Amino acid sequence: MIPLKIEKWLSSSVFPQRVMLSGMGDNIAIALEIAARLQGVDQEMISKGLHADTTIFRDKGKSFKIDFSEAAKRDEQGEFENVRGLIRWAHQKPTANHRIAILENFERISRDAPHALLKLIEEPPAKTIFLFTTQNHHQILQTILSRVTVVPLATPETPIVSEKAHEFLAQKTRAAQFSWIEAFIKQTREDHNRAAAVTLIENLMQQDRMQAGKNLNTLWETHQALKANVNQRFALERMALKFI
Predict the structure, then answer these.
(1) Residues 150, 181: Cα–Cα separation, whole Å
(2) Phi and psi at residue 107, to the nearest 5°
(3) Measured distance CA(209)–CA(176) in Å, rounded
(4) What range defines the domain where residue 209 resides?
(5) Are residues 48 and 127 in the same domain?
(6) Each residue of 172-206: pLDDT tens digit?
(7) Low-confidence residues of the chain, pLDDT below 70?
(8) Can you give the pLDDT at residue 190?
(9) CA distances from 132 to 92, 118, 242 (A)
């Protein structure tokens, strides 16, 4: 579902040139829908890469590189799937309403690429729109964030685990948090323990975004640790120790 803020942009025909969709939901689907509506075409045409003035840089588990290097070729990335290729593509004159570039999971960009992209993001060509997606915009360099409009996305909640998130937040001492974590692990051990823990963290992140966002970095670290099969008790207890 497209956020109300973006609906207003689409309705007013005044759309920012640099938008970052941030959250744990299906960001890429929202980006594709936005692109389809801006271009006035069917979304399937966009998603299948059939629209000449819309390009999608999918997250294939490989970093987004600066140029079309040997490393890029080994990673099976195309000529334009890099910073310099994107710059060349963005400066081509569109035949449609806009020139739209969608970059999925922008936090996976290689270390030096944001600096190489900075000028393009700072001064995008006329009619060019960038739609970035990220699971956590706090992982993005501040120099990039200061030049984009961040739109937080709501994460669809799983009722049982959402309730668990509220339970954890109700624990007021470290001892109580540790006891809760032990009970949570024991309760979910029989049924998709790791999936439940990951969803718990995603719900805690959503809760934290609605507050001051003080724990987002800690929660993101925990989320990544759980995804990397770090011991769940260790990951959750470490999170509790760092929780503000």
Answers:
(1) 33
(2) -65, -15
(3) 23
(4) 159-242
(5) yes
(6) 999 999 999 999 998 877 545 677 888 888 888 87
(7) 154-161, 190-193, 210-212
(8) 53
(9) 20, 14, 29
